[in-house]
Amino acid sequence: IQVTQVVAVVGAGVVGLSTAVVIAEALPHCSVTVLADRFTPNTTSDGAAGILFASQFPGEQRRWFKRTFDHLLLIASSPEAGVAGVFLSSGWQIFREVPPEKKPYWSDCVLSFGTMTDAELKRFPQYKFGQAFTTIKCECPSYLPWLQKRLEKAGGIMIHEKVTDLAELGLRYDVIVNCSGLGSRELLGDEDVHPVRGQVLRVHAPWLQHFVRVADGHTYIYPGAGGVTLGGTRQAADSQAIFERCRRLEPSLGSARPLGEWVGLRPGRRNPRVERGHVRVHGRRVPVVHNYGHGGWGITLSWGTALDALDLVRQCLNERPPEARL
Ligand code: FAD
């Protein structure tokens, strides 16, 4: 296939790599280059618990969640599941008070959604209500290398580079896709993007098979392939406090062996920004497709927002003949 157009994707977290793969596979006449100053295992995505879960999202986010879930479910059901680090995870979300909405809008995005029985709730005497469901756990330390291989197979290239000026990229590429997460604050001057600190612990407790999440999101236990992730926090907290909260929920953690702790900064924003923009290069408009600001839900929304970004890239390329390049 003759390459006629060149696309740059800034960012190699779960959002950037998903977007690059989707574009490279759907548009074989394009050459896709990922530029990033951090690759796996050093991105924020690598430290995320990786559970697919939604809270009170407006509008588009249900669709993004559903499309990501369906994409990952196919991987989880394939021989690739182990190497990609994508598998089903069943468990409970528990509430101190019965919520006004017992069936959330995302109940049909996940599998086997139902209300917890009294027998299940008995394990958590402080809690009055619970939801049981099966979702997906997507572990980025495996998933990102797997996406990188998939990108290479589709002809994509990866370059280690800190981008300081999108307009400069406009000299070299037909379309720029900005997936720089928190980096967009500096790169674009978007002050709506802000860091939201998160901290998790990993422990060895292979007897734990079910996830447990307190509905306020402050305490969770997520079993995974290489350990159990305990969280979490949106503010500064020490690891001991997280461990104590989780042990109160799940007393068997008392004999779990610590594996490590991790602190990361979520790319917080009121809503992810998935839309077109442009930069000016010598008086010419070079299209930019933004896809950043996924907050605490970047894994959950990654494939869905990547597919929307692909549609926007297609629009840009259709409007921009290759001769328009410098
Ligand atoms: P990142 O992973 O931060 O990647 C950004 C990329 O852009 C990096 O490659 C970086 O090098 C590059 N970049 C930035 N600026 C520049 C620049 N100027 N030049 C070149 N490259 C640049 N989400 C879930 O869905 N489920 C969870 O269970 C979950 N748990 C979490 C737990 C914790 C403790 C934390 C902190 C987050 C959690 N998240 C979870 C949120 C998730 O981690 C983020 O939403 C997600 O990682 C965002 O992905 P991203 O690709 O946008 O950003």
Would you kindly provide a written description of the structure presented here, covering whatever features stand out?
With 326 residues, this protein is an alpha/beta fold. It has a domain at 1-48 and 140-193 and 269-326: Rossmann fold, CATH 3.40.50. The protein has 10 helices and 14 strands. Helix 1 runs parallel beside helix 6. The two termini are 22 Å apart. Bound molecules: flavin-adenine dinucleotide (FAD). Flavin-adenine dinucleotide (FAD) is lined by residues 10-16, 35-38, 43-45, 47-51, 162-163, 179-183, 187, 198, 200, 231-232, 264, 266-267, 292, 294-300.
What structural keywords apply?
alpha/beta, single chain, binds flavin-adenine dinucleotide, Rossmann fold
